[in-house]
Amino acid sequence: xxxxxxxxxxxxxxxxxxxxxxxxxxxxxxxxxxxxxxxxxxxxxxxxxxxxxxxxxxxxxxxxxxxxxxxxxxxxxxxxxxxxxxxxxxxxxxxxxxxxxxxxxxxxxxxxxxxxxxxxxxxxxxxxxxxxxxxxxxxxxxxxxxxxxxxxxxxxxxxxxxxxxxxxxxxxxxxxxxxxxxxxxxxxxxxxxxxxxxxxxxxxxxxxxxxxxxxxxx
Amino acid sequence: xxxxxxxxxxxxxxxxxxxxxxxxxxxxxxxxxxxxxxxxxxxxxxxxxxxxxxxxxxxxxxxxxxxxxxxxxxxxxxxxxxxxxxxxxxxxxxxxxxxxxxxxxxxxxxxxxxxxxxxxxxxxxxxxxxxxxxxxxxxxxxxxxxxxxxxxxxxxxxxxxxxxxxxxxxxxxxxxxxxxxxxxxxxxxxxxxxxxxxxxxxxxxxxxxxxxxxxxxx
Lengths: 218, 218
What we know:
2 copies of one chain form a homodimer.
Chain A: E1 7-10, H1 16-26, E2 31-35, H2 38-52, E3 58-61, H3 62-68, E4 71-74, H4 81-92, E5 96-99, H5 117-125, E6 130-133, H6 140-145, E7 154-159, H7 162-174, E8 178-181, H8 188-205, E9 207-216
Parallel strand pairs in A: 1-2, 1-4, 2-3, 4-5, 5-6, 7-8
Antiparallel strand pairs in A: 6-7
Helix pairs in contact in A: 3-4, 4-5
């Protein structure tokens, strides 16, 4: 019936991973939740299946999830970013990896320095993996609020591979997010840093801020 | 009649400076165009007066302009950023300086590294000057298009001094720009970097892109 790629949400038991997973499951993608512990992945998969009234979301250990999927989405906590990538290097060969990591602390939000998290991922994984950066600023609570409603936030997609970027843009759109190609992996450090600004804005004004790009000819 | 502060647009003979100057002149601010050469400043001031059908815009050498003004707006080309600040250090003591510099090349747009241009400005000028960063991403051509129309772009204002940030926000609003406080001077490196992303977006999609912040409780 479907030629949609299978998605693995690696480190997908937190806040951001399940929020994205639910939107993509609703859009008809086959979803695998990955975690370091298979049981934890299975428990979260079962919870999401129950919430959505489906039974197609699976839970696997991260490396099994990565091997089974066509596109992998990394949603680990920032402190686990590099160690997770090192452990998954082999399983990720030949895949597209979407890195959602923003290395910003909520309590003391500072813009991170180059290399971007996604550039680091590319360096760790090597040329056999195509890395894109996206979804760093999309609020989990906004994603969850009305799963079938488009959200008012633009996803900035950075990749050195335009074809991969276009896959990510299509994925974002299928989850109700407007997405734009915003240049190569080095530009992703700005998207990470935007998280620091948006946290500052939220602390000052309240709310769950995000950005939209205006003034383009689409 | 007016208690509006006098504004000096330092290095104000380029593209961005006059565009901002015209909007603020229309909003009733007293404007001084600054340049390294007084004659050049006077020529641009005369051109702007003619365009607007007024005669209140003055042209002075940068340091005279800075001394006369309450708020100074730095719109020099990025290669002159540090040398201009060093030369103006004395004249700027006691003032608010708004740094509009984005250290990004159009041909090869890369996000700049910390310290932000505005943090550098603060370090060069010392504690006697209150620095804010703003207007880095606002397109001169968009500003000029309909001088009396609000523009569809949010100005992100960064400063370690909230009172100065609020002055800049009021100034932006008076020129038809929506503005938000986005944290301290270190956050300004992200706003500079956004320029690189917006150039990438413009090259890919066409147009004059800018950003808007959505989802806040104002």
